[in-house]
């Protein structure tokens, strides 16, 4: 099983003036700890459960571009991009740019989005959910086309929501056959069906074994329906933890964290995307890298993504 980091808040000591240096130290430490990938959240205003609306929040792709100059081993990804924030062509070009600048170590994280309050606050038009799923599928189809061959398939793309007369993709992404596509969400009728058709990884929330097993079985059914090998898709989940060496303050000890995450492998999970409370305390990253990540390596089935 892989363990990776999601950075979902930037409210660190030192304030905004120190934010860039603090972020750099966190992603560098996570990279040194042999994390498989590092993710940042795609939001513009924090929301309940993560932080206060007036706390700092950085735009995702710009932040990942900065991380690409710092991280030498781990993949980088957006968890996950809201489809209506960018046009389809910009999604593909931004994803390609991140892959090139990271040396072929990116994920392409995308989803149908949900935060209507945030969109209204910033003036993003947010179409109905059905329309957003149509936009998502067209963007995924264009991404597959653009990431085919040396410069993509330069044939006209004529969708209902997006049209492209000559989608020349130069430079081409370095990842082969494409940057791994991760679709966020566990919706059983639409989201997981799109995963089966277009994605290399899925992501659902929580560590409930029965729920994870159910979601992955739904995905398996969709794969059978479209003739896709279920084993090709990396099964991941999103969770948050608090960890200390001794489990103080109702936190997890390293052994308890290994047990909690490791049990999800029983449901088929291969990839734990973890938000760690107080991640600016680099000793927590070191602790997880030293005591948790090595123990998770041998748990569960191998991931199809290096």
Task: Explain how this protein is built.
This protein is of the alpha/beta class and about 300 residues long. It has helices at about 20-30, 60-70, 90-100, 115-120, 130-145, 190-200, 210-225, 255-260, 280-290, 295, and strands at about 1-5, 35-40, 75-80, 80, 110, 155-160, 165, 180-185, 200-205, 235-240, 270-275. The chain has a nine-stranded parallel sheet, covered by helices on one side. It has a two-stranded antiparallel ribbon with strand order 6-7. Strand 10, helix 8 and strand 11 form a beta-alpha-beta unit. The N and C termini lie close together (about 10 Å).
List the helices and strands and how they pair.
Blueprint: E1 2-7, H1 19-32, E2 37-41, H2 60-68, E3 75-79, E4 81-82, H3 88-101, E5 108-111, H4 116-122, H5 129-146, E6 157-158, E7 163-164, E8 181-184, H6 191-198, E9 201-205, H7 209-226, E10 234-241, H8 254-262, E11 271-276, H9 282-291, H10 293-296
Uncertain segments of ≥5 residues (pLDDT<50)?
Answer: none
Percentage of residues in DSSP E strands: 15-25%
Helix content: 25-40%
Instruction: List the total number of helices.
Output: 10
Overall strand count: 11
Biggest sheet overview: 9 strands, parallel
Succession of helices and strands: EHEHEEHEHHEEEHEHEHEHH
| Spatial separation of the terminal alpha carbons | 12 Å
Q: For this entry, what is the oligomeric state of its chains? A: single chain
Cα Rg: 19 Å
Keywords:
306 residues; alpha/beta; 9-stranded parallel β-sheet; two-stranded antiparallel sheet; 16% strand; globular
